[in-house]
């Protein structure tokens, strides 16, 4: 009986510590410019983000990760299902400072 209670108690502790799942940024459709497919969509607002680059990844992969972060932010802030990437800029870090990618986009909700 003690083992059963211990197992149930452990399960409760583990599940209470688990993070709430978030919507995958892949579920937010990305666009490189505003196009006709967004004509019937509601423009929700601007998204700005900064992403600290990972030294083990190349510049292209870091840019992809910065865009994924922007997609997640568009969903988290606006519950957007589409985003238009307006700009992504690599800013070289100074002495002992990491490189940063800053990005800007527009969030849309399509019905």
Short description:
The radius of gyration is 19 Å and the shape is flat. The chain has a 4-stranded mixed sheet with strand order 1-3-4-2, covered by helices on one side. It contains 2 helices and 4 strands; from the N terminus they run αββαββ.
Q: What would you note in describing this structure?
A:
By secondary structure, this protein is α+β, with helices and mostly antiparallel strands. The protein has one domain: 2-Layer Sandwich (Translation Initiation Factor IF3), CATH 3.30.110. Helix content is 32%, strand content 31%. The protein has a four-stranded mixed beta sheet with strand order 1-3-4-2, covered by helices on one side. The longest helix is centred in the middle third of the chain and has 20 residues. It is flat. The model has no long low-confidence stretch (mean pLDDT 82).
């Amino acid at each position: 009986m003690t083992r059963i209670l211990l197992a149930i108690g452990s399960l409760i502790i583990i599940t209470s510590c688990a993070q709430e799942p978030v919507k995958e940024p892949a579920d937010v459709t990305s666009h490189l410019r505003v196009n006709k497919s967004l004509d019937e969509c509601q423009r929700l607002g601007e998204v700005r983000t900064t992403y600290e680059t990972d030294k083990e990844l190349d510049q292209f992969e870091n840019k992809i990760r910065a865009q994924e972060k922007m997609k997640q932010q568009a969903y988290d802030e606006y519950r957007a299902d589409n985003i238009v990437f307006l700009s992504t800029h690599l800013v070289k870090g100074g002495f002992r400072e990491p490189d940063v990618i800053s990005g800007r986009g527009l969030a849309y909700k399509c019905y």
